[in-house]
């Protein structure tokens, strides 16, 4: 398991290459990459200039580690890699990558979806959208909480 919280851009191909090194049992790698949109999702009219992400050092890493451990306890996985950016991000730049390796694709697909669903709701990251019209802190979406609840995980 590997977790990075950083300001710098990341290279998913390099992450996957490193994940696969010396692990001949890996038969599937599934990745998710989240990007900064150019427009506010709710209005579709506010053009984003940038997004600013804050986090709670120490707490963020613990939350991501807990999410990873929950995924490892549910599926047979070879490895997990999560990188989440903080600071100033521009439209079209990557925000987050989740890479999951397993012997079989079903485990990798399900675990990757599980990780991103819980990351969206349980990881202490705060997003501020700075648009051509205003600045606002992004709130949790009802859909994200419903998706998390569908996994039937006890607290």
Principal-axis shape: globular
The side-by-side strand order for the widest beta sheet comes to 1-4-6-2
* Helix percent band: 25-40%
Low-confidence stretches: none
Order of helices and strands: EHEEHEEEHEEH
- Extended strand count: 8
Largest sheet: 4 strands, mixed
Number of contiguous helices: 4
The radius of gyration computed from the alpha-carbon positions, rounded to a whole number of angstroms, is: 16 Å
In brief:
The protein is of the alpha+beta class.
Can you characterise this structure?
It is a single chain. With 155 residues, the protein is of the alpha+beta class. Helices cover 33% and strands 32% of the residues. It contains four helices and eight strands; from the N terminus they run E-H-E-E-H-E-E-E-H-E-E-H. Strands 1-4-6-2 form a four-stranded mixed sheet, sandwiched between helices. A four-stranded antiparallel sheet has the order 5-3-7-8, with no helix packed on it. Helix 2 (59-74) runs antiparallel to helix 3 (105-122) and helix 3 crosses helix 4. The longest helix is centred in the last third of the chain and has 18 residues, at 105-122. It is globular. The two termini are 22 Å apart.
Task: Note the topology.
Layout: E1 2-6, H1 12-20, E2 28-35, E3 48-55, H2 59-74, E4 79-85, E5 87-89, E6 94-102, H3 105-122, E7 125-131, E8 135-137, H4 142-149
Parallel strand pairs: 1-4
Antiparallel strand pairs: 2-6, 3-5, 3-7, 4-6, 7-8
Which key phrases capture this entry?
155 residues, four-stranded mixed β-sheet, four-stranded antiparallel β-sheet
């Amino acid at each position: 398991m590997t977790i990075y919280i950083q300001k710098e851009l990341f290279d998913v191909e390099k992450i996957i290459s490193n994940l696969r090194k010396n692990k001949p049992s890996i038969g599937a790698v599934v990745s998710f990459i989240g990007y900064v949109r150019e427009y506010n999702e709710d209005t579709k009219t506010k053009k984003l200039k940038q997004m600013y992400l804050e986090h709670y050092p120490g707490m963020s890493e613990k939350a991501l580690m807990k999410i990873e451990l929950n995924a490892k306890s549910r599926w047979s996985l070879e490895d997990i890699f999560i990188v989440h950016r903080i600071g100033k991000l521009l439209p079209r730049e990557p925000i987050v990558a989740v890479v999951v390796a397993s012997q079989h694709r079903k485990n990798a697909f399900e675990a990757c979806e599980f990780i991103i669903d819980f990351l969206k709701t349980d990881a202490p990251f705060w997003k501020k959208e700075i648009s051509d019209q205003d600045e606002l802190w992004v709130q949790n979406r009802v859909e994200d909480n419903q998706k998390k609840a569908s996994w039937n995980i006890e607290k």
